[in-house]
Amino acid sequence: MRVCSIVGARPQFIKAAVVSRTLREVAEEVLVHTGQHYDEEMSDVFFDELEIPKPEYNLGIESDTHGRQTARMVAAIEPVIEEAEPDVILLYGDTNSTLAGAIVGSKRDVAVAHVEAGLRSDNRSMPEEINRILTDHASDLCFAPSRDAIRNLTDEGITDDVYWTGDVMYDAILDARERSAGQSTILDDLSARPGEFILATVHRASNTDDPENLAAILDGLADAPLPVVFPAHPRTVNRLQEHGLWERAKSKLELIEPLGYLDFVRLLDTAERVATDSGGVQKEAFFLETRCVTLREETEWVETVECGWNRLVGAETAAIREALTSDWVPRSTPRPYGDGLAGQRIISLLQQHLDDGETEPQL
Ligand code: UD1
Ligand code: UDP
To answer: What are 1-13's pLDDT values in tens digits?
Structure first.
């Protein structure tokens, strides 16, 4: 079995690490990095820390308008697929790199498998929502992290070769939590104490590109009752500067460079709570039982909200302030995202599909 895995952005390196490790024991993997994220701290650090093999291809696409970036990825991925002749293209999540891989797979008639299939925020103004929908509809195998994700696919008429696998980020965090507690020195580096700081990340287009939203979030975070540690995504740094908010942010928050995975997990595990618009961070907070204040109106990780670990507050200063200040208590701690074996399940399903030409009936 030859699998071409396509990654390009920070969260995809973390997800692919879980699968690649075991995949390479049973299959030939051709790893393609589109180059969507390219700064050392947005890319190399994850390959080093998580011991992800060096990509066989780095397409070096880097930043551009989203249309052009996706088109350039499509043009660069196609000859790789021609050369590598994989049995299946394996895609993760909802970035432009994901969509580009799905387009090439469907045009070249190569099977496409999508990890994190079926997630929906029902907000079509989000670029990621369109990427998810198009990728799921172009995929031959859909690996869903939750039962809700399977329902979403069913509602859109996608019922063949849909499998519940659990979530690969749960696999990742089980390993990283322990390793980070043993290895990370980030608390000492920042002179931070467990339970005495709030962690924050912001990078979503709707929050960073709109100066009013970004300012409202800053004001909400600035009123937090504890110091706010803010590892800033390069997009957010650029927008803070462009919108004239940089000095205000620096005076109110502890702005730091983006962190490696182990340092980030250590902070998330020990933070009093987290404020974020990240998809992955909402889920990781839930896994680590850190209360999460989500700076969005909706989420695709609905289970985290239903049980009370996650509160959706949008880009509203007063709502952010209230959620960071009041002492709300989660109702329950369910486990909707599997058992930490999602990676292995995905590999078995790929093997079955490719060996038999088809998979077992749905799980
Ligand atoms: C992308 C994904 C988003 C994901 C996020 C993970 C899409 C549409 N968006 O958003 O779903 O949550 O990655 O972090 O695919 N930049 C750098 N250095 C880098 C990377 C980016 O400076 O290494 C800057 C560039 O100015 C770039 C901007 O960040 O224009 C945005 O990068 P881009 O990859 O387009 O989108 P993200 O916001 O990172
Ligand atoms: N992350 C990290 N360092 C940081 C911020 C986030 O390692 O400074 C990790 C985080 O633990 C999670 C992933 O990056 O696994 C989330 O990526 P991001 O928020 O960029 O994207 P999203 O999940 O929203 O697509």
So the answer is: 999 999 999 999 9
Task: Give yes or no for residue 275 CB within 6 A of ligand 2.
Answer: no
Looking at the CA of 167, name the nearest ligand: 2
Catalytic site includes residue 66: no
For each successive 10 residues of the chain (363 residues), what is the average pLDDT?
97 97 95 98 98 97 97 98 98 98 98 98 96 98 98 98 98 96 98 98 97 98 97 98 97 98 98 98 98 98 97 98 96 96 97 72 45
For residue 321, report the distance from its CA to the centre of ligand 2, in Å.
23
Atom of ligand 1 nearest to the CA of 98: 15
Do 289 and 150 sit in the same domain of this protein?
no
Q: How many CB atoms lie within 10 A of CB 75?
A: 13
**ipTM of this complex > 0.90?**
yes
Residue 161 belongs to domain with CATH number: 3.40.50.2000
Same domain, 156 and 184: no
Q: Residue 123 is part of which domain span? A: 2-167+338-356
Spacing, Cα 343 to ligand 1 middle (Å): 25
Instruction: Looking at the structure, tell me whether residues 109 and 20 fall in a common domain.
Output: yes
160 and 25: one domain? Answer: yes
- Residue 330 placed within a domain: no
In the numeric block, the tokens 């490696």 are attached to 260
Tell me how far CA of residue 99 lies from CA of 7, 62, 157, 172, 301, in angstroms. 11, 15, 19, 23, 20
Atom 2 in ligand 2: residue holding the nearest Cα: 261
Strands 254-256 and 162-164: unpaired
Number of domains in the chain: 2
Counting every residue written for the chain, the total comes to 363
